[in-house]
Amino acid sequence: MMTNVLIGLTWILGVLSFFSLYRAIIGPTSTDRVIAINVLSTKVTTLIILVAIIYEQYSFIDVAIVYAMIGFTMTVGVSKYIENRKLY
Amino acid sequence: MQTMINIISIVLFVVGIFFFVVGTVGLLRLPDAITRVHATTKADTLGLGLIVVGLVLMIGFNVTSLKLIFVLVFVWITNPTAAHVITKAKVNQEKRKEEKQ
């Protein structure tokens, strides 16, 4: 029964990820795209955790940790580029 | 006892997915970049927190739930920091555009 609840959560999160991707595609400025990718990274982290619990492959949670770190690093890097127009 | 824990977990999941939906509606509907970052950051951080707390209650306390709590603490630190950096970049970019004109 709990597995069915987790599968439902995964479906809803997948649909919401596509809506975030829509904002990332049509976003008028580059800041909107950075915000949308940041939100998408949080959603995909949750999705990876849910998939790890559903399949009982608990080593996938390490993938979620690495994905959260990559998303944070990408956000800070692109924001610094938007602010300064250079990366060093 | 297990049924009670499962019911609490399902309530936490439903509230967490509600916050995710609210964050996505804010991302799609609000007019400006700064209002969008205002809407999404808090809602998404709270949604991930509630879903992970529900999972920790569901699977019990062992090494896996310790890793889940690590993910939770990491996201709770980095997500507001990322929002702050994005907003600061946006404000400084607009200020520089005004100076150039």
What does the model show?
The complex is a heterodimer of chains A (88) and B (101). Chain A is 86% helix and 0% strand. Chain A has 3 helices and no strands. The radius of gyration of chain A is 15 Å and the shape is flat. Chain B is elongated, with a radius of gyration of 18 Å. The interface between A and B is large, with 40 and 43 residues.
State the gist of this model.
By secondary structure, chain A is mostly helical. Chain A is built from 3 helices and no strands.
Structure class of chain B: mainly alpha
For the largest interface, the chains and their residue counts are: A-B, 40 and 43 residues
Global Rg of chain A? 15 Å
Low-confidence stretches of chain B: none
Give the amount of beta strand of chain A, in percent: under 5%
Q: State the shape of chain A.
A: flat
What count of helical segments of chain B does DSSP give? 3
Distance between the termini of chain A: 52 Å
Spell out the helices and strands of chain B N to C. Answer: HHH
Radius of gyration of chain B: 18 Å
Helix content of chain A: over 70%
How many beta strands in the DSSP annotation of chain B? 0
Mean pLDDT across all residues of chain B, rounded? 91
Instruction: Spell out the helices and strands of chain A N to C.
Output: HHH
Overall strand count of chain A: 0
Q: What percent of the residues of chain B sit in helical stretches (DSSP H or I)?
A: over 70%
Show unreliable segments of chain A: none
